Amino acid sequence: MKDARKDTILGHAGRSPRENHGIVNPPVYHCSTVLFPTLEDLEAGDRTPFDSINYGRIGTPTTLAFEQAVAELEGAYRTVNTGSGLNAIATAFFAFTKTGDHVLITDSAYGPTRRFANDTLIPYGVEVEYFDPTIGAGITALLKPNTSVVFLESPGSLTFEVQDVPAIAAAAKTVGATVMIDNTWATPLFFQPLRHGVDVSIHSATKYIVGHADAMLGVISCADEAKWLAVKKAATRTGTCAGPDDIYLGLRGLRTLSVRLKQHEESALALAGWLSKQPEVTRILHPAFPDCPGHELWKRDIGRSSGLFSIVMNAVPKQALSAMLNSLELFGLGYSWGGFESLILPARPAAVRTATRWTEPGTMLRLHAGLEDVDDLIRDLDGAFTRLRAAL
Question: One Pfam family name from the record (predicted)?
Answer without folding.
Answer: Cys_Met_Meta_PP
